[in-house]
């Protein structure tokens, strides 16, 4: 799996899993590394590469189909009050993709639930494997990783922050408290809030 995850930019690369479903351990790591070093030059393509790709039924891009199906499913399963909110009392949300791939999908989720558009941390919205604005792009690390989010949220009168790590499989949530400080929820607290919401609505 190719990834730019929540680690420093020097660790960008890939995760490898063995047939047991776990990440690789010795001696497999050394054999794989040796194979990589033996194959540093890209393999050639047929001269008729474009025709080959167009006519090969095994080469498909399912992203549009998966996108439609996924957002249709979350609307049916988890959207209990679609568009049913008081805009005068709704919380403004600040979002950061932390130089990763999450922004488009979060935008589509907001649209699926008919939520007001989030306020983006513009300097962190587009993918960038160098992570120029954050040394350690793990939103779960706390205020250090969320510094620009907190700054953007304060400037735009937002009371909530949502943050993904670069490959968008981690989520941080922070709320502005009445005294003006930011409370960053733990993963257990976020899970409890999700569970409570789903239980009440079901």
UniProtKB/TrEMBL annotation:
Any matching Pfam family: PGM_PMM_I
GO cellular component: nucleus
Domain Alpha-D-phosphohexomutase alpha/beta/alpha: 1-38, 70-176
GO biological process: carbohydrate metabolic process; purine ribonucleoside salvage
An example Gene Ontology molecular-function term: metal ion binding
SUPFAM superfamilies on file: Phosphoglucomutase, first 3 domains
InterPro entries: A-D-PHexomutase_a/b/a-I, A-D-PHexomutase_a/b/a-I/II/III, A-D-PHexomutase_a/b/a-II
Gene3D superfamilies: Alpha-D-Glucose-1,6-Bisphosphate, subunit A, domain 3 (3.40.120.10)
Keywords: Isomerase, Magnesium, Metal-binding
Family: Belongs to the phosphohexose mutase family.
Protein name: Phosphoglucomutase
High-level lineage: Eukaryota, Metazoa, Ecdysozoa, Arthropoda, Crustacea
């Amino acid at each position: 799996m190719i990834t730019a995850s929540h680690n420093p930019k020097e660790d960008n690369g890939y995760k490898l899993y063995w047939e047991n479903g776990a990440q690789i351990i010795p001696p497999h790591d050394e054999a794989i590394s040796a194979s990589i070093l033996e194959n540093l030059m890209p393999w050639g393509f047929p001269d008729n590469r474009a025709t080959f790709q167009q006519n090969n039924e095994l080469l498909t891009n399912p992203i549009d189909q998966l996108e439609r199906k996924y957002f249709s499913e979350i609307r049916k399963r988890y959207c209990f009050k679609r568009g049913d909110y008081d805009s005068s009392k709704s919380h403004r949300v600040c979002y950061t993709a932390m130089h990763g791939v999450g922004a488009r999908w979060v935008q589509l989720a907001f649209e699926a639930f008919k939520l007001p558009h989030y306020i983006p941390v513009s300097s962190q919205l587009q993918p960038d494997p160098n992570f120029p604005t954050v040394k350690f792009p793990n939103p779960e690390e706390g205020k250090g990783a969320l510094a620009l989010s907190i700054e953007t949220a304060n400037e735009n009168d937002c009371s909530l922050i949502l943050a993904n790590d670069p490959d968008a499989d981690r989520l941080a949530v922070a709320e502005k408290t009445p005294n003006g400080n930011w409370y960053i929820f733990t993963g257990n607290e976020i899970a409890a809030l999700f569970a409570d919401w789903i239980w009440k609505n079901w």
